[in-house]
Specification:
The protein has 12 helices and 10 strands. It is α/β, with parallel strands linked by helices. Helix 8 links the parallel strand 8 and strand 9. Helix 1 packs parallel to helix 2 and helix 1 packs parallel to helix 11. The model has no long low-confidence stretch (mean pLDDT 95).
């Protein structure tokens, strides 16, 4: 699977429960040269991102790589297909290049996830987060293998080109059955390198995408990253993204700042030597990632 080396994360969620409007940011990202865009029905902004991806001078659809994710309340086959079709309709696309299961555990279906532009965020969150009287998520008993077969059906119907997973452990991927996913999206940063999962996927030729590569609290203020950035004439964020690329991942940074959006893509303009990579590796376990799963 041919993937752009860096993608743009379209999650609007930020630490502290904040949300940001990324429609303008996606327009900036397209103009800067990003071609992979990571979406999800849970993000509630597929319609806005779709407008941005069609806004001149956006490239033709064939030049873009669109990743979608189905939320865990839509893991039953009929709901899954409806969710995929709804996402494509909101996005204004005929098919996803890659479509992922957002997380491994199925939750109770309370109806299709609605577009916050039409029904508000409160209704989206109500349907996305089914809770029992104790506030715990209400799980569904649909087997992962059944959901995975429904994902294959989306491929047969031409709604998606390839299928994968997100936020799974290797043992959960094995429960899908003999046909492995084409890609796996994981949380990955120098603080949380997910080395075991990465090695497991690399050995099976499962492509890895890294969400939240820059979002761990305190990461970009690390003295080591500042030192490496100064030595290379780069920013700490570019050092982290370059580290991810050279580790065989496709990082998915997200920003609403036009300057940061352009700077992040410049992580492709240089390389880290073995000593610099090892130095970044040494940060593993030094911080605590912040925010919700992307």
């Amino acid at each position: 699977m041919n993937l752009p080396p860096i993608g743009f994360g379209c999650s609007p969620f930020r630490p502290g429960g904040r949300r940001v409007d990324l429609e303008g940011a996606v327009r900036v990202a397209v103009a800067a040269g990003y071609r992979l865009f990571d979406l999800a029905e849970l993000y509630g902004n597929e319609r806005a991102v779709g407008r941005a991806l069609r806004h001149p001078p956006a490239p033709p659809r064939g030049a873009l790589f669109l990743v979608g994710k189905v939320w865990r309340t839509n893991f039953r086959p009929a709901a899954l297909r409806q969710a995929c079709e709804g996402s494509l309709l909101r996005l204004g696309a005929d098919a996803f290049d890659l479509y992922l299961l957002h997380a491994p555990e199925a939750w109770m279906h309370l109806g299709p996830l609605v577009d916050p532009e039409e029904s508000g965020w409160e209704e989206l969150e109500r349907r996305a987060l089914p809770r029992d009287v104790h506030g715990r998520p209400v799980v569904d008993d649909v087997p992962l293998a059944e959901t995975w077969e429904a994902m294959h059906d989306l491929v047969r119907r031409g709604l998606v080109e390839r299928i994968g997973v997100s936020n799974f452990a290797p043992w959960q991927i094995e429960k899908l059955g003999p046909e492995l996913p084409a890609a796996h999206q994981i949380a990955c940063s120098p603080y949380q390198p997910s080395s075991g999962t990465a090695a497991w996927c690399h050995a099976r030729e499962i492509r890895l995408l890294a969400h939240s590569p820059l979002s761990a609290a305190g990461l970009l203020a690390e003295p080591l990253l500042s030192e490496l950035a100064g030595r290379h004439g780069r920013s700490p964020a570019q050092i982290v993204l370059r580290w991810a690329v050279q580790k065989g991942l496709v990082p998915l940074p997200s920003s609403a700042d036009p300057g940061h959006i352009a700077d992040n893509l410049r992580a492709l303009d240089f390389e880290l030597d073995a000593a610099a990579l090892a130095a970044v590796d040494s940060l593993a376990g030094e911080g605590v990632p912040e925010g919700r799963p992307a």
